[in-house]
Amino acid sequence: MDLGISGKTAIVCGSSQGLGHACALALTEAGVNVVINGRDAAKLDAAAAAIEAHAEGRVTPVAADICTDEGQAALLKACPAPDILINNNGGPPFTALADLDRDDIRRGLEMNMVTPITLIQKVIDGMVERGFGRIVNITSVTVKMPVAGLDLSSGARAGLTGFVAGVARTVAHRNVTINQLLPGYFDTERLRQGFDATAAKSGTTPESAAQQWQQQVPAARFGRPREFAQTCAFLCSADAGYLTGQNILIDGGLHRAAF
Questions:
Q1: Cα–Cα distance, 95 to 98 (Å, whole number)
Q2: Which residue among 30, 32, 109, 207 is least crowded, i.e. fewest CB within 10 A of its CB?
Q3: CA-based nearest residue to 14, from 54, 63, 79, 83
Q4: Domain boundaries 9-186+224-250, corresponding CATH code
Q5: pLDDT, tens digit (0-9, with 9 covering 90-100), for 116-156
Q6: Domain definitions of the chain by residue range
Q7: 20 exposure class (CB count in 10 Å sphere: 0-12, 13-18, 19+)
Q8: What's the pLDDT tens digit per position in 185-238?
């Protein structure tokens, strides 16, 4: 399927591994020139090489902490006028409420709410002026289906969701869209960290924890990052301009609700 975005430019945050990496790959396969990002330069370079092996578009790695002004400036120096922004960042680790302190809460909000908002601020006016823009925020199924221990991550991502809901409606007439993708249990490093945390808490093994989590999913398996990335790529496509302000679950039926 031709997505109609060959030659466009994109920034994909948190793309040295996991869902961000898969999204960057899917966009480059569609001919998009992508800036990928992570804090570990060696891991990022390896990710860039892996993507380039399949890419139609160019890949530019930028090692930076996007929670800092300097990190965001580095991304925008590499891609001053992005047509596409994929906001993705790691979340706080599994932590009991009693163990969270004020600094933890500030960091969680910075990672999963403040940082994506500030990046949107820095790119959206240019998108509006050019008459094309696609912003996708990767949040989590826990925005709709909270998981104890991920309260800070869920709360910060829910805050982002609420913040951009109004913004999305103010730019839709200029062919600029803002949507959220809410992943469930995908086979990523972060999911495996969840297995470890569950095992430590319950006195079982990570393998047993993984089996317990998988049994919760009606699809009877964990998601594949490429499945997630293909949906992300469509949201960035030329034909997705009438889809905005939405929160799209990709969870194998994990969240049991009709609406």
A1: 8
A2: 207
A3: 63
A4: 3.40.50.720
A5: 999 999 999 999 999 999 999 999 999 999 888 889 999 99
A6: 9-186+224-250, 187-222
A7: buried
A8: 999 888 888 888 888 888 889 899 899 989 999 999 999 999 999 999 999 999
